[in-house]
Structures are given as structure tokens and as C-alpha cells.
Amino acid sequence: MHRSLQFIRVLLLEFTIEPFVEGDPGPHVMMAIEAAQALGFEIEFGPFGSSCQIPAERAGDVTKAVVEAAFANGATHVSLHAERLSEAP
Predict the structure, then answer these.
(1) Could you tell me the pTM of the whole model?
(2) Which residue range is the domain that position 65 belongs to?
(3) CB 10 within 8 A of CB 82
(4) Strand partners, 16
(5) How remote is the C-alpha of 46 from its chain's centroid?
(6) Residue 51: which CATH number?
(7) Per residue in 60-84, pLDDT tens?
(8) Where are the beta strands (DSSP E) in the chain?
(9) Residue 60: Cβ within 10 Å count
(10) Alpha-carbon distance 32 to 15, whole Å?
(11) What are phi and psi of 26, to 5 degrees?
(12) How far apart are CA 59 and CA 45, in angstroms?
């Protein structure tokens, strides 16, 4: 059986959306967060970026939702970082 079917992988997906205005995240940030939340994920909102823990197989869905919502609402730049947190049988 293919490895991706045998294991549940958890990723930490972090995203930073610009322009950055301290204390005023703006619709380009808030709509991107809401797009990820609409997929059922809890977002940790931070001062310089936001993050969520997701199953690896959902990374494409979450990334697409965040990027589309950010740019549709005025973002000029989106940085994404993905890190594998665990694998469990």
C-alpha cells in the first residue's frame, strides 16, 4: 500500500499576508483566515502571521483558499510555510 494511504500526516501551515499594518489586519488577512476556517480548521492568529494544523492531504485545499481569499481582498504578497509535525499509523 502506498505510504500516504498508510499514515496520517499532520502539517503546520503558517501564512503571512501583506501588506502588514500593525494592529489593523485588514480584509486581505481576515478573509483569508475565514476561508481556512470555513474548511473546518482552527486558525491561530498571530502578530506577524497565522497558522493551523492540518492533515497533509488537505494542504492544497487550505493553501488555495487562503491565497485566493487574500489576493481577492487586496493582498500584495502571501508567504506560506509548511512543516511536518507527525506521522501516526
Answers:
(1) 0.85
(2) 3-88
(3) no
(4) 79
(5) 12
(6) 3.30.70.930
(7) 999 999 999 999 999 999 999 999 9
(8) 8-18, 44-45, 50-55, 77-88
(9) 9
(10) 10
(11) 75, 165
(12) 18
